[in-house]
Specification:
twelve-stranded mixed beta sheet, globular
């Protein structure tokens, strides 16, 4: 077992028992589809699901229903595929759960990375679309925003769950009806959407692995205990305005008064140490940087483990050119693993971004042109399955293998 896998196993909660999965195996497209679509009640639905995934893998250019139908059957097929994606009754949740369990069996994950995805749109009618400012792009965009939960292994990452962020404007009666938004959906902030996307996947009893996510848009005080309750270790990027209590004996002059992270980091420059770690996203490259590690706790009752005392957390400042303030700040409950391992976890976000760009986008993860909530969810579910097939390198029929 690798050092990384060993560290992950040591970090697991003793109360979280992993389910049993099938032995690793290489399956063909039909065999994998039989696993994914076992929950679909009708054979024609299972056949259309396989045709759609085949189209996502083989069609050149935009993966529209029209282009997929042209590949697999023509105009009549276009109508039936449109119904299968937008108007049919099959549930995407069981398909995603089957995909997640398959991925775990053949490429055991080292972490679950929760990552937003922006989907630019020309019009305003696609479900969830808004015109808003996206800091990561530095501009206003007319776009949908979704959150993916990715299983990240040593050499690949695969999305296993998706959640579409919906603002309050989408719950006006006319917009909700036109987009077929279900009654149990509700408006969410990006942070709420990210947390719920992961909690949905965690309910499938997947292995306990660190959850890596940007939590600057979340209520960290409520996010941390909810992850701990699921038995999931965590590595959360936080905002430097977050208030925490210092518990580290190496940092003198601090009492239990909650203080902003920026103040804690400013007082901790003497604890800064050089760290070297492997960057899995670019092969055998090793990176180095200055990392500050300070023991902290969330203030108040939310910062306690089931009433037994403060939850021991580690605040990590990752160096920048400005030695007075770190470029990034992360919060984790993995207090006993080396900083190099924590930096490797941090780098898994880059792996997901690369696999999204060079893999998931090639199978059309952003290409759904319909307007309905259900259609969007079914499309990204099948695109995730197509990405998994390609990333796992099943090249028997020549349609897979772009992931190299």
């Amino acid at each position: 077992m690798s050092v990384v896998a060993l560290s992950l196993d040591q970090a697991q909660s003793p109360t979280m028992q992993e389910p049993s999965y099938a032995s690793p195996c290489q399956v063909s497209l039909p065999e994998m589809c039989s696993l994914l679509f076992a929950s679909l009640p009708r054979s024609d639905q299972r056949r259309k699901g396989m045709e759609y995934i085949r189209g996502l893998l083989e069609v050149r250019g935009r993966k529209s229903i029209r282009n997929i139908a042209a590949l697999v059957g023509g105009q009549a097929t276009e109508q039936s595929l449109h119904h299968f994606i937008s108007d049919s009754s099959w549930e995407w949740g069981p398909v995603r759960r089957a995909l997640a369990r398959y991925v775990v069996s053949v490429a055991p994950p080292q972490a679950w990375v929760v990552r937003p995805m922006v989907i630019p749109k020309a019009g305003r009618h696609s479900v969830g679309v808004e015109r808003r400012f996206f800091p990561e792009h530095g501009q206003m965009l007319n776009a949908q925003q979704a959150v993916g939960v990715w299983a990240v292994a040593e050499e690949l990452s695969v999305p296993v769950n998706w959640r579409l962020q919906l603002s309050p404007s989408w719950f006006a009666e006319d917009r909700r009806r036109r987009a077929s938004i279900p009654d149990d959906a509700s408006a969410e902030t990006l942070g709420e959407c990210a947390l719920q996307a992961f909690l949905e996947a965690a309910a499938w009893r997947l292995p306990s692995r660190p959850v890596v996510m940007d939590a600057r848009a979340t209520d960290v005080a409520s996010t941390v205990p909810r992850l701990l309750d699921r038995g999931m270790p965590m590595m959360l990027r936080v905002d430097d305005s977050l208030r925490l209590s210092v518990t580290d004996p190496a940092l003198k002059g601090f009492d239990a008064t909650p203080r902003p992270v920026r103040q804690i980091m400013s007082a901790s420059r003497g604890l800064q140490r050089p760290v070297v770690w492997p960057d899995d996203s670019v092969g055998a490259v090793r990176r180095s940087g200055l990392v500050t590690a300070v023991r902290v706790a969330l203030p108040g009752p939310r910062g306690r483990r089931t009433g037994t005392g403060p939850c021991d957390l580690l605040l990590l400042g990752v160096g920048s050119t400005d030695r007075r303030r770190p470029g990034e700040v992360w919060l984790t409950d993995l207090t006993s693993v080396p900083p190099a391992f924590l930096m490797r976890l941090r780098g898994m976000v880059r792996r997901v971004d690369q696999d999204l760009a060079r893999g998931a986008e090639q199978v059309g993860i952003r290409d759904f042109a319909g307007r309905s909530y259900r259609g969007w969810h079914r499309h990204v579910t099948l695109a995730s399955a197509a990405h998994a097939l390609a990333a796992l390198g099943d090249t028997d029929d020549g349609v897979l293998g772009y992931a190299s």
